[in-house]
Design a protein that fits this description.
single chain; alpha/beta; Rossmann fold; 7 helices; about 20% strand
């Protein structure tokens, strides 16, 4: 099913060298094929006076600012530790504030999502206490990473929204609910291309065009400056598709590249210079299984014999803020004594 180009002010359509019509469910979406931007209209019309909606949630409830020293005298200035029930609330509170600030400043809020369970912690945003204070039509979602599919999967993939099959958690637990609350703008990676280099170049070209035209803010380095980059970390220290001891960690020139690993499906990923150009990076890590990786990322010096062992150590925005959002289990190795997190008002 070929779809005609739709020109919407909120779609941020940018001409691309090739148009690749995409078959998506007609009842669900409007597609801007020139940029692989998916614009999902709201299922119900809502009008809110966003500027007049106070954010009443108390950000400090249930949090501990981890400014204390460990046994080695280190101070974790960019780490916050939460009880599980308050991590959702505090992250949502921070994201709403970031969104308002960005929209007031430039009219849009750009968010980059990685394929990680950290997306689950955005679910509070679609609850009425937060969603009624968010202008979803001004949000633009991007992907930090993407799998590269083999041609045999092409027909199967066209039955889904772009990237939906590869990012099931993101769509099932967050983006589908955003679509119910307001307009959903998703800038996809071309998922119908099996050629890794071509797919990476096409997404990179899309980002460059948006940055040059001002749809994405530009960092001093010229890289896109996302307002929010939501990342998670796995037990081996990987972040997104930045795999330990992989040459991708040394990439400095390309914005988007492919990652080849002998035991995993090839993937596309934003490179470290792009990730570290973000205004705000939220690193959301939970669970005791990740406690060792958290400790290594925040404490251990880089081993010259294995400098790329812990990719999370390389996440360090040049002109932005990095905040680690941890639950007590993930932070358990950072402190000598058990953390006691009480509600504080």
């Amino acid at each position: 099913m070929a779809l005609s180009t739709v020109f919407l002010a909120s779609s941020l359509c940018v001409p691309q060298t090739q148009n690749r019509p995409l078959s998506v469910p007609k009842s669900h979406s409007v597609l801007c094929p020139m940029t692989s931007s998916l614009i999902l209209p709201p299922q119900a019309t809502k009008k809110f006076h966003f500027q007049n909606q106070p954010l009443k949630s108390n950000r400090s409830v249930g949090t501990v600012k981890a400014l204390q020293s460990d046994e080695n005298g280190r101070i974790y200035k960019n780490v916050e530790v939460f009880s599980w029930e308050h991590l959702h609330e505090s992250l949502a509170h921070d994201v709403v504030k970031l969104s308002r600030r960005a929209i007031d400043d430039k009219g849009t809020f750009t968010v980059a999502l990685a394929d990680t369970s950290s997306i689950r912690f955005l679910s509070n945003l679609v609850k009425s206490e937060y969603s009624n204070r968010i202008d979803w039509s001004k949000w633009q979602f991007f992907w930090v990473e993407e799998e590269v599919f083999l041609p045999s999967y092409t027909l199967r993939k066209t039955r889904f929204f772009p990237n939906e099959m590869l990012h099931r958690v993101a769509y099932a637990e967050f983006l589908s609910m955003v679509q119910k609350a307001g307009t959903l703008n998703v800038v996809t990676i071309d998922y119908d291309i099996s050629a890794k280099e071509e797919a990476a170049e096409r997404y990179s070209r899309n980002l460059r065009e948006r940055t040059e035209r001002g749809y994405l803010r530009s960092a001093a380095s010229g890289h896109p400056k996302f307002d929010l980059m939501l990342l998670g970390m796995e037990a081996d220290g990987r972040v997104g598709s930045l795999i330990p001891n992989n040459p991708v960690l040394d990439e400095r020139d390309r914005w988007v590249t492919h990652v080849v690993h002998e035991t995993e499906t090839p993937r596309l990923t934003l490179t470290l210079p792009v990730i570290n150009s973000s205004s705000y990076i939220a690193m959301v890590v939970t669970g005791e299984d990740n406690a060792n990786a958290v400790y290594s990322a925040l404490n251990e010096e880089i081993d010259p014999r294995a400098p790329r062992k812990i990719p999370a150590k390389f996440i360090s925005p040049l002109d932005g803020q990095l905040v680690w959002y941890l639950d007590r289990a993930a932070a358990s190795r950072l402190f000598k004594q058990e953390l006691h997190i009480d509600k504080r008002y």
